[in-house]
Design goal:
Number of strands: 19
Largest sheet: 17 strands, antiparallel
Order of helices and strands: HEEEEEEEEEEEEEEEEHEEE
Distance between the termini: 32 Å
Helix content: under 10%
CATH superfamily: membrane protein fhac: a member of the omp85/tpsb transporter family
Amino acid sequence: MIRTKKTFILLLAILLSPVILFAQVGKAEKDSSKTVLFAAVPVVNYNNSLGLMMGGMTSGYYKLNKKDTISPSSFSMLAGLYTTNKSYMGAIIQNLYFNEDRWRFKGIAGTGSFYFQYLQGLPGGSSGKLQNNGIWIDFDTDARFVLAEIQRLVFPHFYVGLEAMLMHAETTFELPVGDLKPKIISDLNSLGYTLAFDNRDNVNFPVNGFFINFKNRFVRDWVGASDNYDNYEIAANYFWDIKKNSKTVLVSRLYANIASGDVPFQGQNTIGSDDLRGYSKGEFRGNQVYAIQSELRQNVYKKIGVVGFVGVGSAVDEFSEIKDNGLLPSIGFGVRYLMIAKEKINIGMDVGVGKNDWSLTFRIGEAFSR
């Protein structure tokens, strides 16, 4: 455990160093807007699970090499959140593009404590089924993680990469009867590889092209994990400029996240976030999540835009359970404001509605772009 903690701190320092560097560069420049472009959005939200949520996100966009006109701009992001049920989280995200986009690096580090819930199915039922058939159980998860991914261009638009993650999670359950509070402690350390095809015309706001990303992670005891299982994640996105004027864009997306083997509670997947928006209770969870979605993005006036999205998905332990469990619907809309025209960076808000649930999401950038 001591070695894992020291390694976590070391990797966190490595991830933080580019952010500290770009912040110092911004201070040194008299006109930092020419070197680093900033976007920020406050987060004020409410749902029945977490209560009132308050926080913010800020990001900076910059070129690692001003002479490199092919690589997209790199960016650093900081995000923080606190809720009235005493949950909190903080994260740093670092994306680097360099050597004429032949190399891509992604780093994420975060820590937090979330008081949440899940629906425990009754005998003969399942927490993934559409009908409410079970008991709500509260739990608190304290977690910290560091993830690093490096990709190399090997053929036109085709990238191959490696990914490593350190994650420690402690989950305490509050049972509806008695005073027992069982705890699950898991280390979800993993190594894996990534394959990606990316011919989008822009990484921040694509209007044409494909972005297909596949990841295979191996959670094993020989990298310090407490369980042994595999994780497969695939996201296939297609961007279509309908009117060929960059103002009306249709995005189609197929998504699957599959955990197979000795999967602990913390290694399961839940319906929510970008796949699918409209779910915030944590009701639908399982080893596997599947989703199909479409989103229409429309510019309405100068820097103002709107989006509408619809989709269906399912959370199951085995693919064969989808037929019995049924599909979960998702529908919603959002507003956008073009905050950094040079980088095509939008900030905005999405409202999603699902089966007996809803969500409100503030964002920098678009869904499905990274």
